[in-house]
Design goal:
43% of the residues lie in helices and 30% in strands. It is an alpha+beta fold.
Length: 90
């Protein structure tokens, strides 16, 4: 599913204009991104939670040459599905 698919679902199911549907989706996703940038987690009951995890620096390997490469520390988004989501996919 894409962002455009979400917008089309809002248009069809809620009977709203494309402009309003785009605004809702953009506001929702934008607020999620801002929360994660601040280091806050996001919890959507029944769906799951998004958290930021810190990865430590490490020594990696270039798969083509076998040369050792320093991989810097970074932050990654981690998603943990909720119980209802897990149960509905079975």
């Amino acid at each position: 599913m894409t962002k455009a698919d979400l917008i089309n679902i809002l248009i069809q199911e809620m009977g709203m204009s494309k402009k309003n549907a785009e605004s809702i989706v953009n506001t929702f996703l934008g607020s999620m991104i801002e929360s994660l940038k601040k280091g806050e987690g996001i919890e959507l009951r029944g769906f799951g939670s998004f958290r930021i995890r810190k990865r430590n620096p490490r020594i990696g390997r270039n798969p083509q040459t076998g040369e050792k490469v320093k991989v810097p520390a970074k932050k990654v988004v981690y998603f943990k599905p909720g119980k209802e989501l897990k149960d509905s996919i079975k």
